Amino acid sequence: MNDIATLRRDLAAAYRLAALFGWDDTLYTHFSVRLPGSGEPRFLINPFGLFFEEVRASDLIVVDMQGKVVEGNADYNVAGFTIHSAVHMARDDAHCVIHTHTLAGMAVAAQDAGLLQLNQISTEFHQRLGYHAYEGVALDLDERRRIQRSLGDNIALVLRHHGLLSVGASVADAFYVMYYLNRACEIQLASTGGGQTCSEIAEPLSRHACEQLQGAEWQRQLLWQAWLRKLDRLDPGYRN
């Protein structure tokens, strides 16, 4: 399987897995992956109008940095182009970008304090999570500069009053980051919603745990292969 075919397969798998995990929002939100090659970046993204559970590798369209569809016969979500092109233009290491509107993610995005250091999972995002102020639906290309500043060199971004965004060197990386960022948000809602007082992990210990959790690329790849096997058992049509 060549590199582009693998990227198509992995990105389609990410959409199907997101549907399986309940991360989808009808026709909205979007994942992208930058294509290899020199010159101006181009990226794969979902065509607008398909549920995540319907996306196949062959359905993905190729878009350039001017917003032109250079491969495929479908259109895309304009807000998706604004968000994803912003990241792909600014971060050479962010080959994959995942954006979600999950219930837990949107709830934490509305909380003043953002993601709290309440559990081991949240420590992975200690000082590695940016915040972007809400500006309305992302239709203004000028917002790209501010998204880039908000993300900085972080692995993820909370879009205030909107949702979550993760980046990674591969689909496997970005999906792993989103899975655990969303899980940290779910744990936060469960912890703070029961009426009990919650205590945060002390900053030095959060920093220590974050350092311990980094550098496990091989584990992320093992997990991604396990997710692909799960998908192949339940919903193999993503490969088409």
Automatic annotation (TrEMBL):
A Pfam family assignment: Aldolase_II
Domain named Class II aldolase/adducin N-terminal: residues: 9-189
Domain of life from the UniProt record: Bacteria
Record-linked NCBIfam families: PRK07044.1 (NF005451)
Family named by the database record: Belongs to the aldolase class II family.
Protein name from the UniProt record: Class II aldolase/adducin family protein
